[in-house]
Amino acid sequence: MGTHVILGAGAIGRGAARELASAGHHVLLVSRSGGGSDLQGVEVVAADVTDGARVAQVATGADSIVDALNPSQYSTWAELWPPMASAILAAASATGAGLVTVGNLYPYGRVAAPMTEETPVAPNGRKGEVRAAMWRDALTLHQDGRIRATEVRGSDYVGAGMGAQSYLNSFVVKPAMAGRSGWLVMGDPDAPHTWTNGQDVARLVAGLASEPADSPAWGRTWHVPSAPPRSMAQVAEEVAVLVGQPVRRPRRVPKPLVSAVGSVYPLLREFNETRHQFEAPFVLDSTAASTAFGLAATPWESTLRESVAWLSETAA
Asked: What is the per-residue pLDDT for 264?
């Protein structure tokens, strides 16, 4: 069994830690606060991930470093991510640990067809440019033989444990559970959209972290196996039927109102960069990972039940 260092004690980091620990690996879960002590078989470590020497110290002798970080200040990614990314690359180079990064679909920008790992990189804004640069830098070091790197990309998260990270849970599932119409600050309720179960992300991350050093899995991106796309209107109906509430169709918040509120609420302004993902079909093709690793997405019905159960528990 190997040793794996996971940076970030959020839902994905904790999920990957559970997957690796349950398979018998030695897992160190790193965060600024040292949280995650409730996870069985996982060692928690407090560290500043912008300190490359400290990260390298923690990762000495490790088989992999998993970057499952997610800066809390969404509006300042351009300032927060670069020092963290540089420190992590330095630690991977110094220790020889393989680097598995949990990325997203922002680098692809606006798309007109299902996204594969070969979809051109064409960011639609600052956050997409930051994420694209992070992978470009890691891939360059990989190609130069200085590190081993791979990146996992999923669509918008759903499922148990996905709190504020889940647009679907917040704006569609929770209102439908209460028999109300969700008010969408962005998005066409009828546009097909891929939703990725957070635990499927964790499973792929854990699998990649365990790949041998000479595996062809390194040096490329992988899309997380995800269920077939569903529109937000479909999801609202499915939730209502599941919990026995009347079906209420999600409604759009008028764009002028969103813009007006966004003038005083920075987070809402940040949604402008990703609005396109919800206004038109946004579909992820994850055939490559499913074929290479024999992974299947969690069935949609199970994901939806998990989301409803978790939201019910947290509300209680």
From this structure: 58
- With CA atoms as reference, report the closest residue to 283 among 101, 163, 156, 159: 156
Three-state secondary-structure class, residue 28? strand
Locate 177 and state its tokens.
Answer: 């559970």
The overall longest dimension of the chain from CA atoms, in Å, is 58
Alpha-carbon distance values, 315 to 82, 157, 238, 286 (Å): 36, 19, 20, 33
pLDDT in tens, 23-45: 999 999 999 888 777 899 999 99
Across the chain, how many H-helices and E-strands are there?
Answer: 13, 11
Rounded CA gap, 14 and 7, in Å?
10
**Residue 113 near residue 180, CB atoms below 8 Å:** no
Q: How far apart are CA 51 and CA 57, in angstroms?
A: 10
pLDDT-derived band at 265 (thresholds 50, 70, 90) equals low
Model confidence at 164, pLDDT cuts 50, 70, 90, reads: low
Q: How many CB atoms lie within 10 A of CB 137?
A: 15
Task: Identify any residues that bridge with 65 across adjacent strands, giving them in sequence order.
Answer: 5, 99
Burial (CB count within 10 angstroms: exposed 0-12, middle 13-18, buried 19+), residue 172: buried
Number of residues written out for the chain: 316
Q: What is the mean pLDDT of residues 127-137?
A: 96
